[in-house]
């Protein structure tokens, strides 16, 4: 049995997803095989080229036509964030399983509608929090769940980038609220929030702070990935999202949380990092060294206590046997392959994948609670949302 | 000309100060020489032993007698925090120069009284924020002041320890509000706040969160440095200070700040660390590797941009020429030697040392603003205090 | 135009090569596209399964038949080392371009015959020194070639593994001289030697030392990648290769070299690391952190001199634009994709790829010179070989 | 009871020793107290100033007069290396205990004479291999001795500096064979050899290689520590010592050794580093981070194996209780304090200190064996020497 995929979107995430679909059967041959059936995008020529380059059987420029097809099992949504909701509602109605990139939607309200639609349709639904699927993060999950870190006291996390540090970097769509929904908070902070949920648990309340350091930028001529071109002397437009958002949080289990997302941290191309301190041990992770996890145990012999640098490529580590011998590392793109392994496994086993739309909703609730806490300058309980 | 010192306190800080007074003339022969005249403490026997061991000419058990002496130029206060104020007021009245360990006092009100008294007496006064005097921190100061980091966007700092992680660790004085004034916040966070003031500037407003994870502990039998003994089966008492305090802050210059102090971070014996991100570069510091500074510049050639690990032991670095050849490191105790170099230099040059009592007051204002923000669950402006 | 590939071998390297052939057109669409035509191995069933899993159009169990086919442009040899020569000679005779895994052959004599045959046939030939194709290694090459490191004084390199540290680890083929040709020296040291040639230049003379720490091991039941199973109580056989080989070398340009390859370095799953010191700067590389390069320049401002951690994922770095945004890392397998990019580009541009069989021969000459230096306990000149 | 010290030499090492004598009684009050009686040097004015600055009771310009005094118990020799022998022989004859800086002498023959004289005189004698006395190195010793690392397979060590990288750096005495005896080999390599002896055991045979990269330099006008001044346009003299020396070694217990000492490693101010791999674990040390030791154990749970960063400042670590709380580091100078603690303890306990002159002789034997191996281009057995 295989699963025929229709994918909407073909840029940064479309490339990462395509690569995952291609690699999955080779490295995880026991999983259901995703068939790269149709890739869809508004620009006919560009999507045709992407189809050819990425290995999709067909190209399509109308997503409604795609969803209407009978021979498609999965709809993969990685179009810009403002399009997620409408597509997902239609796909759910059509009974397709849905993989949707994060952020699930531009608002909590929209995200909830999407979850409800998916649940009513009885389909499998997944939100693209890919960082969960680093072997080192899987190891953290195992250490926490098994109690080897004890009771958790602290979670601190920061996602630091610097790609818009230059005041003349152009006003790309990620800096426009109506398309992106949010800036560093929704783009980067969302990943931290999901990791917090996954690894530590639910949040009770939050209070935040944000800033847009550069308030106007040259209009963008062109954008690819995170790079873009624009004329510094040309017309400028308003940046309508946050450049940085920080917040404090209290977890339901009593742990204290600290979160920071910024695009103004010079020298950090993409530092997605967290630390957890528990009563029996600690872990530290930095995605720039994604194969590694630093681990500390209070139970170590007293003269050799210290953070260990574990390279999570041993047979005992998640996914490692599918890849290369110990010490031979993997990269960013592998998180997507593992993510789609979870998705296809969940379909095969007839269970919801994790993270599902429910996790996307939960993340969105925190994002909006933080925004409200900033607007109203007060602690906001997640239960308010 | 030399300066005759009377020092009140003889434990952890008394030892560090004594060592500094002894080393100063050897490594900085051009500075005024502090004469180790009198050491003072309530326990006659113990202070006598300390005098002999640390090299003080005389021991004294009554601090009022010490202050009354004509042959003492400097009063060094490193007794427990609850004694600072009374001693400082008396010393100022007697016209002695005063070095006072941090926290300056148990309350902002007290700290202000001390500053006023010192200013009225026309003496030199200094607060013991020793971490400023790491060569690597001096390098940060130089980079910031000269504009080499550009406009500052972010300051994030954390002081992480784990010495009370064990729930049976006894209820030492540092865990009692009436003596210590504060827990991790005043003990560790105070250092971070001072570094923020020194390196980035004043804060506008703050909001915090704290927690006492372990609310009762065995009564302490004995304490030395940060270690102590107690019976886990004996009587217990209430912990009246915070185990951890976190807060967010907005600087007057627009930078965003994040601060965390905790004694519940397993694996961190004493991680006193900060990062500053500016428009032209970033720096990272961790006191456990105090000889090093990581530095990033946006102006580096584009194919070799990255954080540099600078070992601050070259002739171009502060204090380095007094010590050992490049690459030969110094330690914790050296920060005190440099601190007293500033103190004696200030006396010699007839100027106030930095950090003075005014800096101690400024730090105390932030500490209390954070406490108020926690109590009242709202942002608190420093100007309210 | 595309290139039809016939690949002989289907295990660890066969998997890595297959992945590279699949990924190449997607990430480097302007390169010639390799067609995955035929995979070949002796075990009909296993090779059939590999064909299906890895995506080859056909499976073949007789390599001579494969070579005899007219519709094959490239022969990719990753069968065990003892089969390389015979296959390569036949492939050259048949006019196929050849990619051959390292070590090129079991002896220098054999390697030279292979090179001669390839040159006489006028085909393109390449040796699989994949580590050259890490972006960070490419950056080193650029820094050296452009003179930014100045005159090179030192090259020190070590390839440390620990997979046979357990004395009961079985006697796999890699521990048998008649199949593997060599132990750590030919397997790991060969990579270091090639990097030395590539980055610093030719060697003049060498002297070495080796050891087989564990001289007998249980016979192996089964082997996959670097792991294997065997019964510790069953029959044992002699280990006929080196567990560790170290050597010193003098480069023709006057630099001094130090090389170490071992499989007995506890804690090192696969540390492939080198450092180069020149008159104007230094670089350090460790393949376990393959996206990073540490770089030092003597010309940096004197107060901020230090090794920079460059993450080689910026647009200015080799291959980076084909992959993900800055800070999003790649892994071990990507070196093979870049390697086959060089191979197909060389065919397209009608030039020899680098490293060619000539580089394989040069590496083999050093390997044997070291062996001779060990046997005869004297410095051996490469020109003797 | 105290010990009256007469110290000959007052520059870099004289300063380090003076500091150690001053600090010892304060931090190790139970040890015999060294009395800083007489400091001796040829330049009357300079030595008088040193006496005053470092805290010596008297200054003396004639070392023979010093040795002739009855009121001196210990002679501390840190004059230039070419003066060691004559002074030591006289001091031994006079029945003084002797502390001598490394290298013990300019030749093995001289070193042996010194050892014989010391043994015949029945005095305590010590050689100044201070790096043994880092807490982290003490931890290595404990791990090796207790068997926690198992059988040792590899010792690799490198001492890298860059202070003479500039071809115009002047011809200081350390670059002149008649005064210094040796270059990087005797200055830096000697420390590595002593650590090898201390931590792994005796060497059987060695083979080396060396180079003087810059063969002529401007004559030196002035030298302090490792810095110096000279005119690049003035007269030049020949460098008569090695800029770099590397050698391979076989230990008597079967371990393999690799050693490198160089002053031409750009970016390394003073990297004194080694790694030991055993059958049960490994350790890594770098003196630039002297408070840390990286430790790996094969017995760790399989999913959390990795090198631990141990900060050797806990109560379980050597010397730590004398200093500061855990996580509060010490520096280069502390190795001397611990070294003199061993010296005075040995005197008090009437045993030879370690390392004694015998260790100095053993180190010298290896140094000369390496030199002979270079000259004669062959393996040289230590037993030949």
UniProtKB/TrEMBL annotation, chains A, B, C, D:
The keyword Oxidoreductase applies. The keyword Thylakoid does not apply. Transmembrane segments: none annotated. GO terms for molecular function: nucleotide binding; oxidoreductase activity. Keywords: Oxidoreductase. Residues 3-128 form the Gfo/Idh/MocA-like oxidoreductase N-terminal domain. Residues 137-284 form the GFO/IDH/MocA-like oxidoreductase domain. This is Gfo/Idh/MocA family oxidoreductase.
């Amino acid at each position: 049995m295989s699963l025929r995929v229709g994918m909407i979107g073909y840029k940064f995430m479309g490339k990462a997803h395509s690569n995952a679909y291609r690699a999955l059967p080779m490295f995880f041959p026991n999983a259901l095989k995703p068939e790269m059936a149709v890739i869809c995008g508004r620009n006919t020529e560009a999507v045709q080229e992407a189809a050819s380059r990425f290995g999709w059987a067909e190209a399509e420029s109308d997503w409604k036509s795609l969803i209407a097809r009978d021979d498609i099992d999965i709809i993969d949504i990685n179009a810009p964030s403002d399009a997620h909701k409408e597509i997902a509602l239609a796909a759910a109605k059509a009974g397709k399983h849905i993989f949707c990139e994060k952020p699930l939607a531009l608002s909590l309200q929209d995200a909830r509608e999407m979850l409800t639609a998916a649940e009513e349709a009885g389909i499998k639904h997944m939100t693209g929090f890919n960082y969960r699927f680093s072997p080192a993060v899987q190891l953290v999950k195992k250490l926490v769940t098994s109690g080897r870190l004890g009771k958790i006291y602290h979670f601190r996390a920061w996602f630091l980038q610097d790609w818009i540090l230059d005041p003349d970097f152009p006003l790309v769509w990620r800096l426009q609220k109506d398309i992106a929904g949010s800036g560093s908070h929704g783009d980067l902070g969302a990943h931290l929030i999901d990791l917090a949920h996954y690894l530590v648990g639910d949040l009770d309340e939050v209070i935040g702070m944000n800033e847009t350091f550069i308030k106007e930028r040259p209009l963008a001529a062109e954008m690819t990935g995170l790079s873009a071109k624009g004329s510094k002397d040309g017309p400028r437009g308003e940046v309508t999202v946050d450049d940085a958002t920080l917040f404090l949080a209290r977890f339901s289990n009593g742990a204290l949380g600290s979160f920071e997302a910024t695009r103004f941290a010079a020298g950090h191309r993409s530092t997605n990092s967290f630390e957890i301190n528990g009563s029996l041990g600690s872990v530290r992770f930095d995605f720039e060294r994604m194969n590694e996890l630093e681990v500390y145990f209070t139970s170590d012999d007293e003269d050799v206590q210290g953070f260990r640098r574990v390279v999570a490529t041993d047979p005992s580590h998640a996914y490692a046997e599918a890849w290369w011998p110990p010490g031979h590392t993997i990269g960013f793109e592998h998180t997507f392959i593992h993510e789609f392994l979870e998705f296809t496994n969940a379909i095969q086993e007839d269970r919801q994948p994790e993270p599902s739309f429910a996790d996307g909703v939960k993340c969105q609730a925190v994002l909006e609670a933080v925004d409200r806490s900033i607007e109203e300058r007060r602690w906001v309980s997640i239960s308010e949302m």
